[in-house]
Amino acid sequence: VPSTVVNSTFLASSEVCGDGQLSVHGLQWSREQCRSRRGGVIDKHRVPSAAIDGLAELNPEWGALDNNITEAVNATLQLGRHSVATVAALFSDGNVSITSHLGLAAGSTLLHGLKESGQIASKSWGLNSGSRGVTSPRSGSLVLGGFDEASVAGPFYEYDVRSPDKLENRYCPLQVLVTGLAITVNTNKNVNATKPVSKVFVSNANKWMACIEPYDNLFRMPGPILDQFRTLFQETTGFSGGHVRPSEYHNGLLNIEAGMVFPTPPEQFNASLRLTLNYNLTVDIPWHEFQQPLRGLDATGKPAVDTNYTEYQLFEIPAEGDAPVLGKAFLSQV
């Protein structure tokens, strides 16, 4: 996945799916689920090894680097029409990362190598996140050295790369000020079915900074926001329980780093989000993007859906340090 956190590329070693590593975050994986969820793994014995000297200094923001990255390989990355030789770090501890990272931080070795070899004109990149939605899925793209002009459908909004680049101890060079966050629910339990239920979570009076990070799939919100959403869901649907934890899914479905999952309510609950950022950028997340049937991997590692549950695109655990993150669920609409 694209990452603004690391300058090097980090690949998952086949050892992360070995014996003794199939229990991660308290969940038991099958070997097939592990390989599939990590997007494939690298057999280090089939790739020339490389020294790890300098990797820690090159990637100071990777918190677990010193203790968990002990090997590297000389790899040739083939990215569409681009090809570049680089030293890629291998992680063999399954708790370090869920998947491999393509290092696109400010000192990216990938972008440096491509520019030095004349394959790109600038050390820049453009991301079209596409959509993981079931109703309107859309392919995405990553352009190195520029952006895809065909993907641009509206005006540009410019934001400075932050310095210092920390938000509540999280490395976060891409920061925006959230001045508004509201949720609107259309439900057939409304007293007036034509009038949706709205709830304002953030306004100018309590605005906060948020990270934009493409390697995160979901919104990561402060604990109070999650509590307010849970209360709104319960009040609107009449559901009295809490959200369902990953260990409670039926049929062995694996969903690592899940959103807030509830039993699919018998009554309609179509929730959409509206975010307002500084410089008056308004981003709407329609209900069919914000909520999805629960998806994951079956025991064979193949994609599966369980319509008995609905997953809302809010990471179930409060953001670390209450530092909000706008991931692919946000980027799919900008």
List its salient traits:
334 residues, alpha+beta, Cathepsin D, subunit A, domain 1, 2 domains, 6-stranded mixed beta sheet, 4-stranded mixed beta sheet, 7 helices, 21 strands, Peptidase_aspartic_dom_sf
Write structural notes for this entry.
The protein is α+β, with helices and mostly antiparallel strands and 334 residues long. The chain has two domains: 2-120, no CATH class; 155-331, Beta Barrel (Cathepsin D, subunit A, domain 1), CATH 2.40.70. Helices cover 14% and strands 32% of the residues. It has helices at 31-37, 55-58, 65-68, 109-116, 223-237, 287-290, 328-331, and strands at residues 2-3, 10-12, 23-24, 27-28, 49-50, 71-79, 82-91, 102-103, 125-128, 141-144, 166-167, 170-171, 175-186, 197-202, 208-212, 259-263, 270-277, 281-285, 291-297, 303-315, 325-326. The strands form seven sheets. Strands 13, 14, 15, 17, 18 and 21 form a six-stranded mixed beta sheet that branches. It has a four-stranded mixed beta sheet with strand order 2-7-6-5, covered by helices on one side. Strands 16-20-19 form a three-stranded antiparallel beta sheet.
